[in-house]
Amino acid sequence: MNIKQLLSKYGMFIRYVIIGLLTTAINFVVFYIFKFLGVNYLIANTIAWFASVVFAFFTNKQIVFRSAYTSRKAFIIELVEFFALRGVSLLLDDGLMFLGISVLQLPMIIVKIGTQVIVIISNYIFSKLIFVKPSSKGE
Fold this sequence. Notes:
By secondary structure, the chain is mainly alpha-helical.
C-alpha cells in the first residue's frame, strides 16, 4: 500500500490525530498556566477543557471531518451537539482527575496524561457521530 492509498483510507484518522495532538497541547498549556496561577486543579481542568473544545470544534469540523457549513441552523446544531458530547468528556475527565489526584493521590502529570488518552478516544467517537454524515463514513 502506497502513501496515497494510506491517506485515502486513513486520512480522517490521521487528521484527527494531528488535530488531537494540538488540542491536547492547548489543554495542557492552559491547564498548567492556571495551575501556576494557583487555581484549583479541577477548575483549571475545566477552563482548559473549554479552551481546547472551542479549538477542537472548528478544526474537527473543517479539517478533520470536512463538514460543510450548510446553514446557520445546521451549524448551531453541530455546535450544541459537539459541546454536549464534549461535556460528557469533561465529566469523565474531571471525574478521573479527582479519582486519580484526590482519592488515589497519584502524581498530577500522570493522571492528566492518562485521562487525556481516555478523553481523546471518546472524543473521536463523539466527533464522528456529529460530523460524519452517513454518505461519508467510508473515509
